Amino acid sequence: MAWACRGFFFALLPILFSRLPSEPPLDRGFVPWLGHAVEFGKDAASFLSKMKQKHGDIFTIQVAGKFITILLDPHSYDSVLWESSCQLDFSKYARLLMDRMFDVKLPDYDPNEEKVMLRSALQNKNLPSLTKAMFFNLQTLLLSDPSNLSRQWTDEGLFHLSYGMMLRAGYLTLYGNEEENYNDPSCQDKDRAHSAEVYSAFYKLDQLLMRAARSMLTAAEKKEAANLKGHLWKLLSVKRLNSKANKSLWLESYKQHLEELGVDEDMQPRAMLMQLWATQGNAGPAVFWLLLFLLKHPEAMAAVQGELEKVIRIRGQTMKQMQGISQEMLDSTPVFDSVLNETLRLTAAPFISREVLADMQLRLADGRKFSLRKEDRLCLFPYLSPQMDSEIYEEPEKFKYDRFLNADNTEKRDFYKGGERLKYYNMPWGAGINTCIGKFHAVNSIKQFVFILLTNFDLELKDPEARIPGFDKGRYGFGMLQPENDIMIQYKLKD
């Protein structure tokens, strides 16, 4: 009888491990229900690269009971990015992550509607005020803090410096200052103290969020996360934010949006913490990688500093004399733009995910058609293709500061795969309706921080032979990657 049962099981294997001929190749893994969850969560980039070699540029995997179709053909991304939300929807997965990571539940939440509502507060006519506020807040943290103004070398972790300064200045810019006068020393002291408190708790929480998103926190970690979130909710309470000076239009708009949704005062701080992570969680890591690549590639550092000196010289002022950095100046740095694009190509690794709401057919650029099943998930991973695709980029694993520059110093935008020009050749900001609405503010903020740092401080690696750290592989899929370990630098005020 046992032999008969075993024979029946093996007869079923071809059925269990396959799907319809019109569907993408299916790879369930060897563990029932769990499937490839362990490999996928441990190192998504390596795992999906192996799956691509095995199955091609579209395939389906099983992960903890969920079937996820992965598409890695950038020529075909438009078929996902612009598909109707009646077929492919982002909001369901977004609500799941909001609850798991931040304990946020918003009634009638529509991420696309929210983006439309908040876009104008971060772009166009409102961008200059954000840029100017970021400049003043960076000066408060970098140039008005006595602890930073020594002409003796100071040792610090580059990641801690980059993430801390960017998150604190970005927080003050969007959420407001303790008092109105940017230049008053007592106001600056309060801003430095308060933003440091926010960053300290936020950074500790950030180290737990990826495991929270995957429901993998231990009991001790759940307790720690709850304590950290509780502390941050108090710092972001309705009463506390209402008392702020220099609040951004973005903050006022988002607060009004929450009120219109009927979100109570207990839930609002949770949503504000979620937005702090969404708006400030990527710029600091981006600055870390950019500065590290510059420090490890002297020719790139020389090119950036030469360009910056030229831009400042043309305007007849030193950086210390400026009361802000104009958009014209920020837009006059093609070398830096190439360095930033190359940095993001190497280190930005978000997933673009959609829930399949109804059985549908997906048509690829080469004419192939694949059936997708209702309740499956469809996912793009631009980090693998186009960003690390050797058919698109020569030696894609290497940093080349001028990779996005033409010979005449204009931005290079012509990249090819399969002999055809790519619409999507670098996607750190997403694309289509998924494009980051805060992109322009984020780029301006990154530029301002690096410009202020390089023009006012000497900066060098503590150990010039230190190796570039590997990635924290658990962060694949959630935006900018963070390093496995920090790198020590030393800096001092220029003579």
Mean pLDDT across residues: 94
Contiguous uncertain segments of 5+ residues: 1-17
Tally of separate domains: 2
For the secondary structure, the number of strands is: 13
CATH superfamily of the largest domain: Cytochrome P450
State the end-to-end distance. 87 Å
> From the 3D coordinates, which CATH architecture of the largest domain would you assign?
Orthogonal Bundle
Can you count the helices? 19
Radius of gyration: 24 Å
Strand arrangement across the biggest beta sheet: 1-2-3-9-6-4
Q: The biggest beta sheet, please?
A: 6 strands, mixed
Can you give a write-up of this model?
The protein is of the alpha+beta class. The model is unreliable at about 1-15 (pLDDT under 50). The protein folds into two domains: about 20-100 and about 350-380, no CATH class; about 110-350 and about 385-495, Cytochrome P450 (Cytochrome p450), CATH 1.10.630. The radius of gyration is 24 Å and the shape is globular. The strands form four sheets. The protein has a six-stranded mixed β-sheet. Helices cover about 50% and strands about 10% of the residues.
Describe this structure in a few short sentences:
The chain is an alpha+beta fold and 495 residues long.
